[in-house]
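#onboarding

Welcome to the new folks! Below is a worked example of what a typical request in this channel looks like: someone posts a single protein sequence, and someone else replies with the predicted structure as tokens. Don't worry about understanding the tokens yet, we'll cover that in week two.

Example request:
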Amino acid sequence: MLRGDERFVGPSAGRFVTAEQPGADAALIAFAAFTDQALRSTNVAEVAQRAVEVLQVTLGSVSVAYLVPQGRLWHAAALSASVPVALASRLRAGLPLRGPQIEAALSARDVLFVPQWTVTVPDVPDTETFGAVALCPTYRGDTLVGVLAMGIQSAADWTERERSVFRAVGRSLSLALDRAHKEEQLRLHNAALQAQARSLEAFAQLSADLGAQEHRLALIRRAQEVALALLPRGFAAYYEPEGDLWCLKAQVGQVRDPARQAALDAGLPFSQAQSLQLPWDSGEPYYQAAFDPQSDGLKVPGDGLGALASLPLQVGGERLGVFTVGQFEARPWDAGDRALLAAITRSLVLALERARSVTALRHYSAELERSNAALQGANEELEAFAYSVSHDLRAPVRHIAGFADLLGRALDPDTLAQPKVGRALTVIREAAAQMNDLIDAMLNLSRAGRQELRLAETKLDALVGSIWAEFQPEVQAREAQGHQVAFEPAPLPHVQADPALLRQVLTNLLGNALKYTAQTPQARIEVWAETSPDTWTVFVRDNGVGFDPRYAHKLFGVFQRLHRAEDFGGTGVGLANVRRIVQRHGGTVSAQGEVGQGATFCFTLPRRPALD
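Example response:
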């Protein structure tokens, strides 16, 4: 049986269309347009308004509203034109949604169809005129954000078509709200990523700025600028204790209240300023969502500060001050804010430590430079003195040797034949010769310190071979006395060194090896080299008399000897010259030995791979 305002569309339609409705094609077009908009639009208000309109266009004489919660009341965000005027006014002002059926529908997150509507809401006009009501709750995530409500005055129940259309519109509206929620979450996520990118850029710039600055307060101001760039609408202040006050040392941004700013400029009482004292004593940050001026001993009225974060600065284990960031409005400091401020102060502390180290290093370098200059001057004076003395000594030595020769020629043969006279002249001549050798050694030592290095590729094989050839007369003389001298050089590398100075080094080491094996019937002298990634180490080993290892530290000193001059000649300067030459090449020298077990001397030279 048809209601009075209905007509049958056709046997295949299976549903009724009211006489007041437009044609079925117009309804389908309107519904399709709404579905397309719900799939594309992220404007919830527009989609809700379109849902209200499409229900009225599609179903005819229905009243539709989309309600959203505001506090304890539900307000109309969209209304169809068919809603009675008085009811529409009350829906816009807001009304509660109560009742077992309504609450059950909202908690079940399902569509509710209420036929035979008999509920009369007190103080809400026209609610008793509806014969049936339908409610569809909409959610954003897990949060109830609205209710799509539809009522009909001309019938006491809903047809299957009306139910299907209402469900479809409600489902499309819910999908649109869910998609808008997801897009909003994506927008917030992108905004967070952009904020993180800005933070990283700010930190990169902060690191660059802090690395180029050494002044303490300038570093702190730069950190304050970065903090306010990432946490706007506030100011940053840095305090250090001086006597019984916390003194403001650096500030970026101003407090809104001039009287409060003046109080900060004047200094805060050390024992009463809780926002500074607590982090100073604990070494931990102190965050206040709503700053209380009285907690800092401030009695200045006015709007100056809402939230405050206070972070202590400790450099090298020493408490330095308190870094604060204030916000004009009260708000909680979330985990992101705290991580941001912790990162800023950590970068600042590292920069302050680096600046302190750089300053100390600069002072140390200046002091070292002055010491080096003084040492260089002393060395130059010492070398000049040694050179001068060596030259000045030659004249009296020549005189001694010359007059000894004259004396020998002037004495008659009988006098010269006397043992004491002949011995005295011999001692004078040998002492003069020894003095000449000593002067030559001192000159060589002086030149080694002043002579410019002329580095070149040096073939150690050829250099050692030519030096040993110079010792052949001495070797042959010893072999003529029945002593054997075995020289065993291993293959040697090419090195970068001053050939002339390196010849002095090897001549001295090989000469010593030959000298200190003079009493060894089967002498053996070995030469070889070992390599490491950075250096070559050259060894000269003999099986001669050796030395007491307790006195090895004296070997390379000037005029230091570990054997009697009567047993082994020499000036006591040769090994000192070896050390000076090797050190000028950037190497080191050392020696090992045992009495009667021979000795091994070695020196290092920087390795140049291109010359290997």
